[in-house]
Structures are given as structure tokens and as C-alpha cells.
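Board notes, transcribed. Complex of a protein with flavin mononucleotide.
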Amino acid sequence: MLKYLTAGESHGEAIIAILEGMVSGLKVSSSVINRELKRRMQGYGRGERMGLEKDAVNIISGLKNGATLGSPIAMVVNNKDFSISSLNALSSPRPGHADLAGALKYGHKDLRNILERASARETVARVSVGTVCKILLMEFGIDILSHVVMIGGVEAHTKDLTFDELRTLAEKSPARCADEAATKLMCEEIDNAKDAGDTLGGAFEILVKNVPPGLGSHVQWDRKLDGNLARSLMSIQAIKGVSVGLGAIAARRRGSQCHDEIIYIRERGFSRKTNNAGGIEGGISNGEEIVLRAYMKPIATLKRPLRSVDIKTKKQAKAEVERADITAVPAAGVIGEAVTAFEIANAMCVKFGGDSLSEMKRNFEGYLEQVKEF
Ligand SMILES: Cc1cc2nc3c(=O)[nH]c(=O)nc-3n(C[C@H](O)[C@H](O)[C@H](O)COP(=O)(O)O)c2cc1C
């Protein structure tokens, strides 16, 4: 089983991740992690800090000669903008952020003691962990992409695009959206929100291809793959909804218009003509592409701040204005890929076990043979 912990504050010395349970013999290069960290910083609508930071991971344990040892992998990304003890104290909590709830809970009179850790800078650690997991998944042919499907009220139309087309188009788009016309409108919408001192949310889709049937389990609530994916995606800062396959749309349909009829072709085995279930039934992957969506609320820090109350004076005040993004949906998609990679990699480790990559591959191939002969 895989697990990870993150540590570090936004303007602290570094962001740190420890990933435990990874098999030995997996080749991991810090340049691949750095490439993903760069993707996390991009996207139209990000704040000034994104130009400032150039994240570079330092893998300080769990690796020898570029391959995993099976021991915990510790990764450190230093913050260039390191100034936590000299930053001014803050006392007007931002509606929509962790400021007030966190201050009440931990008894802090300086909101910075909360927001520095609540900040999405923490996701540097999750992207580092997720990249190691992606590298593992690639050994089994499992590939993950994300693309933005909505920013503000602007929706993308990408229904007929293939996995590869979606990836190529999204990576070229400043909004990480595979629909060129929608990209233009999204960027305009971001400019308009910026001019108004406001912020935007939106949604991204995650696709996972070549997932074998049988990851996750129906037998216990905490082994369900959809449940674990939803928890991980929902734990990304500002994600307020997650759907699998048709998601909420399924609730409006009749069964006959919702469920994916089963077919059998000798060379392919069992499959479906539609994939409304998003590749998961009964908490178990069914062999179809996994399709997830995550919905992000607008950024809580507004240039034109909302009304708040100063926690020291208890007088009406404007919420604090920190340097902030107008929207971060494109970056959230990259983080979504990372946490999805962790959950799929974990489910793979649970199902195929093993302490080394070669042992895991033997188990995987034996299982594929079993499924073929079913
Ligand atoms: C990639 C990314 C960047 C973010 N940037 C900001 C930001 O610049 N300013 C801000 O107020 N919130 C930002 N957020 C959202 C906050 O971190 C989040 O709203 C806050 O931690 C409270 O958590 P909650 O929204 O999940 O309740 C960002 C989120 C993500 C995923």
C-alpha cells in the first residue's frame, strides 16, 4: 500500500513530501518531476508569484543510481520566496479561505499562521508524489491526462476528441482547454474578472486509459476506487465537487439511457459501446477509460475585497488582499492528475503487490492472463 505525507508553508523554507510503499527498481528522474512542477505553475490567470518561483525537486532519500530502493522517498522543493517570519501579521479573514475557521480552531491571532499552510503551494508536494506514481503507472501502460472543461461560465466542447488529441490541444492552450474557441473566451473572461477585481472557478476533466479491470473493491467502503478518487480530488484546495462518468447528469436519466450495455468480442473480451459509468462499477475499475471531473470554486482572495471582521478589534473590515491568482483551474487540473495517479498507483500496488517492480509486473501479467481466459 502507498501512503504519503506533505509538510511546509507557502513562504516557509521548503515544501516536503515523503512517499512510502513504492516498489524497488523504478527509474525516477528529478527532471520528469520538475517538468510536472512547471506545468503546475502555468495557466492563464495565475498571480505574479508564478513568475517568481522556478520549482526544482531534490530527492534526498529512497533512490540510488536513479532507481527506487523500496524505502521511503523524501522530496524537497525549496521556496525561492522564503520570508515567513518577516511577513506582516494579518487579522481580516478572507471569506472562502481557511483563515477564520483555522484561526478559531488553532487559537491563532495572526491569520498567516493558517493561510501559509492552507495555501495551494502545498500541492507542489502532491505533484512530486503524483509524478513518481505516474512513472510507475507508465510501466503498466496506464496514462493520465487532464483538460479544462469550464472557466467561469465558459464551457468547452470536446466530445469527439480522442485521448491524444485532447492532450495535445490542451497542452498548447493557455487555459489548458482543448477547445480553441472556448480558450479564447475563457481568457477574455479571466481578463474581465481581473479588471473587475474579481476571481473565477471552473472545472477540469481527468481521463485514465489502459486501466485493467479489478482495481478497488466492492467489499468494503474504504476500498472503493471511486470513493478514494473522489476523496483525493476533493482534498485539493478549492475543489467543491467531483463526479465519475456522467456524475450528477445520471440522476436525471432513465436506467436505459444511463447504463453501459455489455458486449463480448473474442479478441477484446468484455467491453462497452458507451462509458457513462466512467470506468468504475461497484467501486471497481471495469476496464473502460476512467473519466472524472472536478469542480473548483472561485479564488477566495479578491482585489476588490469582500466584507469581513477584524479578529482583534471585532470591527467591520475589508478582507485581506494577498497576491493571488484570478483563476487556477488549469493548474488544478495538473494537481488532479497527480492525486489521481496516486490513487490508481495505490490500487495497483494493493492488487498486484510485490516489493520490486519485476515482482509487481509478474503478478500483473499473470492476472491479465487470468482475465483473458475467464
Ligand atoms: C492551484 C491552486 C491555486 C490557488 N491559488 C489561490 C490564490 O492565489 N489565492 C487564494 O485565495 N486561493 C487560492 N487557491 C484556493 C485556496 O487554496 C483554497 O480556497 C483555500 O485553501 C481554502 O480551502 P477550500 O477552498 O478547499 O475550502 C488556489 C487553489 C489551487 C488548487
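Residues 47, 97-98, 118-120, 123, 236-238, 297, 299-301, 324-325, 328, 331-332, 335 surround flavin mononucleotide (CB under 6 Å). The domain at 3-372 is CATH 3.60.150.10 (Chorismate synthase, AroC fold).
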